[in-house]
Write a structure and sequence with these properties.
Number of strands: 10
Strand order of the largest sheet: 1-2-8-5-3
Bound molecules: protoporphyrin IX containing FE
Family: Belongs to the cytochrome P450 family.
CATH architecture: Orthogonal Bundle
Cofactor: heme
Protein name: Cytochrome P450
Organism: Penicillium roqueforti (strain FM164)
Number of domains: 1
InterPro entries: Cyt_P450, Cyt_P450_E_grp-IV, Cyt_P450_sf, Cytochrome_P450_monoxygenase
Radius of gyration: 24 Å
Distance between the termini: 88 Å
Length: 508
Amino acid sequence: MALALSSILLSILLIILLPPLLFLTWYLRVSRTLPNLPRIPIYVSILGLWSSMGQDEIYERWFRAPLEKHGAVLVWFAGRWSVLVSRPDWLTDMFRNEHIYAKAGSQIKIPHAVIATLVGDNIINAHGENWKVYTGIMKAGLQKKVFETTSLLKQSRKLVDVLIDLQKEVGANRGILIMADVQKWAVDVMSENFLDLDLKKTNPHQSLGQPNGAVRIEALQSIIKATLFKPMYFSFPDLDHFPWLFPSRKSAYNTMREFDNCLYTMIMAMLHKRTQINPTQSKDMVSHMLGEAYTSGRITEKQFRDNLKITFLTAHENAQQLVTSMFWQLGTRVDIQDRLREEILDTAKTHPNPSQEIINGLPYLTAVVLELLRLFPPVCQLINRVALRPALLGGELPIAKGTFVGWNAWAVHSNPDIWGEDAREFRAERWGESVEEMQGRFRRETVRGTYIPFNAHKRKCLGQGFALLQVKILLFVLLGRVSWVVDPAYRLKMTPVSVFLLGLDDVC
Ligand code: HEM
């Protein structure tokens, strides 16, 4: 009798469990069309759910050995197995041949997902005709030959003022968290230089110096970042199909819509005001160019909104990340700070308000920023291309049509076969002595696929020149006024950096 009961229970259990098990086996299967490469265990993609391991530790433990040996691995990313590449010649092939390895962002891969709602179809993730249209409209605004340094200097000085006040407030015995103010600074710089959202002192959009949360569109950025990178939803975006089941997804969609509407309303108000004040004024900002294309019918309202959002996001968060890493790196290596400060103070004597040429002519400053980008590439990994036809990557690795492929910049930048045994050390001197030498090496390594913080070839970053200038100017101002050390209690992770700021004489 007891035996019969237990076998009935077992059968019921099997009937209940079998369909989900079969479904999971099918869902997680590795397609036969994928190349024969080592596979990163799937649990690594959701490790963040139960482990506090940083991305650097995860990379060392699971990625480094197979990537350095095979040049590529299979990785579970955004709901499918994809090919992650780190061999420079294969990367160069991928970057050069966009007609084969076409951009296919989340709007193509997972159009229903929260992240696709956020970014839509834009200049970074579009392919073909749409990309040509967006580039034709926006490129001139992103790649201005001469960027005005006055406002960059002013905003950098303001960030330093805010940090000094913060340190005074907490007292000399406690470290300060710099992340929130760095984000505000990055958002303000982007708003003023690309979107024309800075309207002087009374500007309600300027967030630096205001309490956290005072400027809603800036505050939304922290919510968006925390929402997007939740490991479970990031790795299994199919869960986004069920917002009625997961209340956090419902609120994620609402946040993305709020950001979209908030930005659209602000830009439309700015454009309206501009037309009323001076309709003939030159329109050299990305937001003006997009506005003009929208009102003349060259792009739809959705395309207008999507490209505004990507400009907002990409033009602030990469600089924000780089500066946060900079605070950590230079706060643990005071010798670099000292050497850089010497160069800066020397220049500031004759150029207290340096132009773009003066800033870009400083060799050690240039080398430090290039080295920061090597060791802390803000865009560390991207898998946003799809093979449009069967291909042999680099003439060696068979890639079937429809396979998603991507790259990992840290893998390339930290490989000792490429950068030498000291690849993981910060050594600005490796870039050379003169600025010309450094720029030459920067160009060569980019073309070879061995230095890819801004990607390379056809789809490389269009904001590179501005981003480099922005970070150099901040360093110029920051090092002229303060020195800092990282709070000894802080461990490097993808968490806020806490520093002790020590004031210097006001020079810059
Ligand atoms: C430190 C700062 C920055 C870094 C590290 C960075 C990095 C990158 C990378 C890696 C890509 C290639 C993305 C891909 O392959 O899908 C890219 C593309 C792009 N970036 Fe940046 N970026 C930075 C700042 C900026 C800024 C300030 C702007 C100005 C709005 C900008 C605009 C763009 C655009 C428009 C593209 C797309 C180019 C195309 O596909 O034609 N970036 N960036």
